[in-house]
Amino acid sequence: MPRYRLLDHTSDIGVEIYGADLADLFANAATCLFDLILDRESVGETRTIPVSLEATTLPELFLDWLRELLFLFSARSLAVRRVEIAAVEPTRIEATVFGEEFSQERHGLKVEVKTPTYHQYSIDKTDEGFRATVVFDV
């Protein structure tokens, strides 16, 4: 199963993200997001940041996760290489984010992702696991 795929969209960036389980889905969402933003393979792992989030529903938790990752990038200048999901339930996630300080010279900047939107947003259980469809405002 692929981690994610890009969808045709006129002005923003649409993606479908896949995971065999919720931990896989959330980890693949981080991979997808930072593959869109920068050259993730060039990012080292000199900083680790714990992330703990709670929400009332799985769809809200997933969007909060993406927003938190964008916050770490824009406010804390963290380029993310990978994440480890310690625990995830439909309304809670505990994870560690690994990366380093963002450098445009080293990591490049492919596109400035502003936020995930509710446009065409869905998160579904499938026969293979989970699938999330997200459109990012750029």
**Globular, elongated, flat, extended or rod-shaped: what is the shape?**
globular
- Runs in which pLDDT lies below 50 for 5 or more consecutive residues are none
- The amount of beta strand, in percent, is 35-45%
- The total tally of domains equals 1
CATH topology call: Archease, Possible Chaperone, Chain: A, domain 1
Oligomer: single chain
Looking at CATH, the homologous superfamily is Archease domain
Quickly name the level 1 CATH class.
Answer: Alpha Beta
Percent of residues in helices: 25-40%
* SSE pattern, N- to C-terminal: EEHEHEEHEEE
Mean pLDDT across the residues is 97
Our measurement of the CA-to-CA distance between the termini, rounded to an integer number of angstroms, reads 27 Å
Radius of gyration from CA coordinates: 14 Å
Number of alpha- plus pi-helical segments: 3
Secondary structure category: alpha+beta
CATH architecture: 3-Layer(bab) Sandwich
* Strand segment count: 8
Largest sheet: 5 strands, antiparallel
